[in-house]
Hints:
Elements: H1 2-14, H2 17-37, H3 48-59, H4 69-72, H5 75-90, H6 94-102, H7 109-118, H8 127-155, H9 160-175, H10 194-209, H11 211-221, H12 230-253, H13 264-277, H14 291-303, H15 316-330, E1 337-338, E2 341-342, H16 345-372, H17 377-388, H18 403-418, H19 420-428
Antiparallel strand pairs: 1-2
Amino acid sequence: MRNITKRYRKFQLSLSPQQNLLYGFLTYTFIGCILLCLPICHKQFVNPIDNLFTATSAISTTGLVTVSIFDSYNWLGQFIVMLLIQIGGIGYMTFTSFVLLSKKSPLTHWHQRVLNAEFSMPKGFEIKDFLKSVIIFTIVIETLGALCFYIAFTQEGVEHNFAMWSSIFHSVSSFCTAGFGLYNDSFEQFADNTSINTIISVLSICGSLGFIVVTDFWNRFSGKTKTITYTTKIIFGVITLLLTFGTIMFYFFEPSINNLQDSKLMASFFQSMSALTTVGFNTIPIGKLSLVIQLVLIFLMYVGASPSGTGGGMKSTTLTALIAIMWNRIRNNKQVTFFGKVIPIERLYVATSVFILYASVLFVSTFLLALTENLPLDKILFETTSAIGTVGLSTGITGSLTAFGKINLIMVMFIGRLGVLTFGLAILAKRKGIKTKMDECDLAV
């Protein structure tokens, strides 16, 4: 046994940080799939391909499902799904590293390299402080979220025991921006419930803002730093603008919500928030939305949340870097600047590479689904964008996909969670001469 452990450890050390992340998430995915295949986890039989789909969707915090979580899995199965969501939400290396720190054991060089690859952090952040803020913030927010959910569910008449379990499950799912729910209509039955809409929105925004922002504010209020970082300012600015844009577009151009009357503004904000934070819950039927609003949601899902958070997507800071490149090119500036800050060439390489790879994966996946599925192109594009952005919103076609279509989305969800650039480096990068840690700039892309 000791020899096997040594060999496995030697194998780990021989891998690049990106390859460690790839194999780590693969391991958790297959373990989750095997557990979900056990009959003791089922209310009714679930095909292995659907169990693999569910496990991948959970570890990637996507929320797309081919079977009903509540109708297919019992409490144990639902618990396994929630555990996979939690691991996928905060990063598979985080728990191990936090345990080491709790035991006063220093992080090894290997741990630090993998963590630096998993979390894109701006200049000046210490791994130790970052990990503590991640764990503490997660525990506090999810606990408060569960308590608030319980009060809201019981006020809606939900039975006590189910309200308790549902509160815990949805708190974890909301904060990790996973979009998994125990209600088959997501939260459509609570479209006019201000409390539930607010709880989900707060939890999802907290998760999607990213642990960079949390650590930044913690350092600011604890006196370790005097100002918040440039990255945090950019994240807040971009998220505010995009949420405002999405809400306005929904409110004025989506006819299906006109009958909501007093809840129209809340529904407009919630759907925009759900797409941008990649939480994937919905309070109105997504399949009935107009084409123009589906296009708005596709854009918001494509951009996604912020770096080092629980959300997916291309990331708000990547969008910022791309806008900066375009603006400075048009003005014929020699340096790429954004609000008085020079963005180093390394960060620009990362942003453009992510954009190109992201668009390439999206195109290939959409192309393959169009070949195998007899479905409209707009629904296929929406589904693939939701998968690579790890969002979970769907027009209702997920369960009707062929086996090939499901495998396609499984791969896309996995790449979306790992990150297109990390996936590319894990598969193609040479071990020598590759610079994988870029922390010279204050902007984390």
